[in-house]
Design a protein that fits this description.
By secondary structure, the protein is α/β, with parallel strands linked by helices. The chain folds into 2 domains: about 180 residues, Rossmann fold (3-Layer(aba) Sandwich), CATH 3.40.50.2300; about 140 residues, Rossmann fold. Helices cover about 35% and strands about 20% of the residues. The strands form 2 sheets. The chain has an 8-stranded mixed sheet, with helices on both faces. It has a 6-stranded parallel sheet with strand order 3-2-4-5-6-12. Helix 9 links the parallel strand 10 and strand 11. Helix 2 crosses helix 3 and helix 4 runs parallel beside helix 5.
């Protein structure tokens, strides 16, 4: 039986929300149109249950009740970034007041479709200024704002964690999607050099290439694999985790969702918390604020998650020094 130890309280994802209407909620004045929110998901409603629930709850806490005081139009990319422009265009045609997105590919697509409809990024795993998405954190300018994790400051920790849990680690493969931002790879390589690791970079574009990447890792005698942050790779996390088990390669990932389906370890922002906080941006925009005037916030909650069942299957003993830092351990 699997048991989970938590040191922090997390938001629970339960699909559709069945919660009492908060006292703060106010009915729409008679004759006033109900505002529309566009929600662009990288995956699908099932795979994004926890983030979707957190966002909806954040809206409810601010008095926005779906189907009563606000309408939410959902579009799902199903892990295919090529669909983003079309889906954004559909939302714009629906005359939504704001569009919520996550990740650089979705944000780039949204910016390419509209320069007027406000865009809120709920999760952006890169520095929005260095990546050219915003003029500054304090005043992003244009029609975008949201929450970013400055993820390039974290990727080095993934490499460090692999070096701590894999005995005498010397060779590692970095698995990167071709649409990934170069800054993340650069930071990961810097961390690897600092640790004296030999790195082989393998790039993939679609699912059909994933197993080939693991074969390369095995032929290169890699002792571990690091899956660089990518909403596209995350959409296919089950397949990546299966391959890591098949080729018996310890792997580090960006988000908890990988570990929940059998991945070894992850370290990254608490995305449900970021989606909940994204609701406050939507609230202010619906009340008249300009997105370019709303400061970009940074992630405040991070979590290290370790799957001991996977570690045992790989013949690894996770050091106590690492376990003591974990926020959640799957046994």
């Amino acid at each position: 039986m699997t048991s989970v130890m938590d040191r922090r309280t997390f938001l629970a994802g339960t699909g559709a929300i069945f919660l009492a209407t908060p006292l703060a909620a106010e009915a729409q004045p008679a004759g006033k149109a109900v505002p529309r929110i566009g929600f662009l998901g990288n995956l699908n409603a099932k795979d994004q249950t926890s983030s979707l629930t957190a966002f909806q709850q954040g809206l409810r806490d601010l008095g926005w009740i779906e189907g009563q005081t606000v309408t939410i139009d959902y579009r799902w990319a199903e892990g295919n970034p090529d669909r983003f422009p079309v889906l954004v265009a559909e939302l714009v045609q629906l005359n939504v007041s704001v569009i919520v997105v996550a990740g650089p590919p979705a944000l780039l697509a949204a910016q390419g479709v509209t320069s007027t409809v406000p865009i809120v990024f709920a999760v952006l795993l890169v520095d929005p200024v260095a990546s050219g998405f915003a003029a500054s954190l304090a005043r992003p300018g244009g029609n975008i704002t949201g929450l970013a994790s400055q993820y390039e400051e974290i990727v080095g920790k993934h490499v460090q964690l692999l070096s701590e849990v894999v005995p005498r680690l010397s060779r590692v493969v970095f698995l990167r999607h071709t649409a990934g931002l170069p800054v993340l790879l650069k930071e990961a390589e810097t961390a690897a050099r600092r640790l004296g690791l030999k790195v082989r970079i393998v790039e993939v574009t679609d699912v059909a290439e994933y197993e080939g990447a693991f074969r390369i890792a095995r032929s290169e005698r890699a002792q571990a694999i690091y899956v660089l942050p990518s909403p596209i790779l995350y959409a296919h996390r089950q397949r990546l985790v299966e391959l890591a088990a098949q080729y018996r390669l310890p792997a580090a990932y960006e988000l908890k969702g990988y570990v929940e389906v059998g991945g070894l370890l992850s370290y990254g922002p608490h995305t449900s918390d970021m989606y909940r906080r994204a609701a406050s941006y939507v609230d202010r925009i619906l009340k008249g604020a300009k997105p370019g005037d709303l400061p970009i916030e940074r992630a405040t909650k991070f979590e290290l998650v370790i799957n001991l069942k996977t570690a045992r299957a790989l013949g690894l003993t996770i050091p106590q020094s690492v376990l003591q830092r974990a926020d959640e351990i799957i046994r």
